[in-house]
Write a structure and sequence with these properties.
heterodimer, B: mainly beta, 11 strands
């Protein structure tokens, strides 16, 4: 069945790069997404990648997609304390645009 | 455009009470969704709709009902609230056509059942 998996926690030092990983199972997914959620807040779309792309860069964010391994990663360069949040990976399962979500990776940025 | 608007933002219900979570969007989107997010978890799909008059169950529909009488509105009804329905509820909409590549989310409704 459809499933999205992420590691639950990541801790980095301010100024370092963060890499958050995600694996998914539905090879028919057309888009894959990264959302950010700060405590008690809603969902902020950070970036997404189309399934026929390998990489997408958007300022400090780099998304890498390995379709063969069904592996997606989000790299945040020069991580700041304001990047502390939970990051969700989600895939568009294609059928009626339903999103399948990972459990989220809690990123802690230490000064 | 206001986007996706959910009301209320917060609510406390007693066990057995009923309520309706409201969701409206002004983007003329065909697709609308209700997700719930339990503490420390990702989102699970409750119900969705691909257009006015059409609704379908998601992963976790038990204890909920929806209707879609207009394109704009997609209310979620809780009958006989239970503590297991304590969660944050997110409504989302998505436009039709290949150019529409993302969902738009409301700010969420934080529901506590005591």
């Amino acid at each position: 069945g459809e499933d999205v998996e992420q590691s639950l926690f990541l801790s980095v030092r301010e100024g370092d790069s963060s890499v958050i990983n995600c694996t998914y199972t539905d090879s028919s997914s057309t888009y894959l997404y990264w959302y950010k959620q700060e405590p008690g807040a809603g969902l902020q779309l950070l970036t997404y990648i189309f399934s026929n792309m390998d990489m997408k860069q958007d300022q400090r964010l780099t998304v890498l997609l390995n379709k063969k391994d069904k592996h997606l990663s989000l790299r945040i360069a020069d991580t700041q304390t304001g990047d502390s949040a939970i990051y969700f990976c989600a895939e568009n399962a294609g059928n009626n645009r339903k999103l399948i979500w990972g459990l989220g990776t809690s990123l802690a940025v230490n000064p | 455009n206001a986007g996706v608007t959910q009301t209320p933002k917060f609510r406390i219900l007693k066990i057995g009470q009923s309520m309706t979570l409201q969701c409206t969007q002004d983007m003329n989107h065909n697709y609308m969704y209700w997700y719930r997010q339990d503490p420390g978890m990702g989102l699970k799909l409750i119900y969705y709709s691909v257009g006015a008059g059409i609704t379908d169950k998601g992963e976790v529909p038990n204890g909920y009902n929806v209707s879609r009488s207009t394109t704009e509105d997609f209310p979620l009804r809780l009958e006989l609230a239970a503590p297991s329905q304590t969660s944050v509820y997110f409504c989302a909409s998505w436009g039709q056509g290949a150019r529409n590549t993302e969902a738009f989310f409301g700010q969420g409704t934080r529901l506590t059942v005591v």
